[in-house]
């Protein structure tokens, strides 16, 4: 069994390949994480075109600075998500500050920070849902999107009612961490919380 603090082999090898300048490695990384990056960027920025640009910027940063990823700090997925969040929040702040200045409303920093906090919590919740195990996500999707109670969820999933309740409770507990103040707002779990 591997040590608990040992990073996954794929993450270490990917970082090494990127550091050597292997274009194929960037392609593999993009194939694996582009939907995550774009989804988080869109959640924070609320704009498809801005999310497209930010996705390009995130992968450009990874290509130019592969050494900034430390496998000992956590999974590559979490690092990429944290990088995306940080760059998206920077872009949101810059865009909103420019819009406030253009409108002559220089004193609305509270509104700006509220918007950034809201976008960060939404991005963190999105990341949590994407990262949770399929059985938990399936139970939450049935309960939320299809308005199923735990009995209907159990029947749909072919599990006991106790198991359905357990999955829903655990999924909701994970989702509730999106508001945790102990980490940076919107920071994905598992990479030190630094945004």
UniProtKB/TrEMBL annotation:
Keywords for this protein: Sigma factor, Transcription, Transcription regulation
Transmembrane segments: none
Domain of life: Bacteria
Domain RNA polymerase sigma-70 region intervals: 29-94
Signal peptide coordinates: none
InterPro entries from the UniProt entry: RNA_pol_sigma-70-like, RNA_pol_sigma-70_dom, RNA_pol_sigma70_r2, RNA_pol_sigma70_r4_t2, RNA_pol_sigma_r2, RNA_pol_sigma_r3/r4-like, WH-like_DNA-bd_sf
SUPFAM superfamilies recorded: Sigma2 domain of RNA polymerase sigma factors, Sigma3 and sigma4 domains of RNA polymerase sigma factors
RNA polymerase sigma factor 70 region 4 type domain boundaries: 128-174
PANTHER family for the chain: RNA POLYMERASE ECF-TYPE SIGMA FACTO, RNA POLYMERASE SIGMA FACTOR SIGZ
NCBIfam families listed in its UniProt record: sigma70-ECF
Family: Belongs to the sigma-70 factor family. ECF subfamily.
The name this protein goes by in its record: Sigma-70 family RNA polymerase sigma factor
Organism, as annotated: Streptomyces coerulescens
């Amino acid at each position: 069994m591997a040590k608990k603090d040992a990073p996954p082999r794929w993450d270490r090898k990917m970082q090494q390949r990127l550091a050597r300048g292997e274009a194929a490695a960037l392609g593999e990384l993009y194939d694996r994480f582009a939907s995550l990056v774009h989804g988080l960027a869109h959640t924070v920025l609320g704009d498809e075109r801005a999310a497209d640009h930010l996705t390009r910027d995130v992968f450009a940063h990874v290509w130019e600075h592969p050494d900034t990823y430390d496998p000992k700090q956590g999974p590559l997925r979490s690092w990429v998500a944290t990088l995306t969040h940080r760059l998206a929040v920077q872009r949101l702040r810059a865009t909103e500050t420019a819009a406030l200045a253009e409108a002559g409303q220089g004193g609305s920093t509270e509104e700006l920070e509220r918007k950034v906090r809201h976008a960060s919590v939404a991005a963190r919740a999105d990341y949590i849902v994407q990262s949770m195990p399929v059985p938990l996500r399936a139970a939450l999707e049935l309960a939320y999107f299809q308005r199923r109670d735990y009995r209907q969820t159990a029947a749909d999933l072919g599990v006991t009612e106790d198991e359905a309740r357990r999955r829903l409770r655990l999924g909701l507990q994970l989702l509730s961490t999106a508001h945790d103040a102990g980490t940076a707002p919107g920071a994905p779990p598992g990479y030190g919380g630094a945004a």
